[in-house]
Amino acid sequence: MASGFREFQASVRRQDGTAIVELSGVMDGSAEQLLNSAYAEATSSPPERLLLNFADVDYINSTGIALIVSILAQARKAHMPLITAGLSEHYQEIFRITRLADFMSIYPDEAAALAAA
User: Fold this and answer.
1) Residue 13 maps to which CATH number?
2) Is residue 117 part of a domain?
3) How many CB atoms lie within 10 A of CB 112?
4) Nearest Cα to 106, choosing from 22, 95, 98?
5) Using CA atoms, how far apart are residues 57 and 55, in angstroms rounded to an integer?
6) How many whole angstroms separate alpha carbon 40 and alpha carbon 46?
7) Is residue 96 part of a domain?
8) Which residue range forms the structural domain that includes residue 82?
9) How far is CA 51 from each of CA 85, 101, 116, rounded to the nearest angstrom?
10) Mean pLDDT in each 10-residue stretch from start to end of the chain (117 residues)?
11) Is residue 4 part of a domain?
């Protein structure tokens, strides 16, 4: 792993019907098990919506994007809105280019996402 980048971590908390998955570190292939575990925990008692908070994410590679697509597919299958917060301008642009932004709402930060929900 490149210096300055942290190992991926994911934790789940709930607020006002929203399951918030806090992501941090590097999202790459090594993130898959932790991300899937966090999704399973977040949806164990189905929330009204799922919020992926990227504010503490250092880097997302193409495999990380594929993992996000997988989470999006699972959420859509469960008819659960997926919203995101804290994406850098760079990753917001990548989400627009890859059309991920067509299937999830993107907010500048968690407070804005929760207020809109």
Assistant:
1) 3.30.750.24
2) no
3) 15
4) 95
5) 6
6) 10
7) yes
8) 9-110
9) 7, 14, 12
10) 82 96 97 98 96 97 97 97 97 96 97 94
11) no
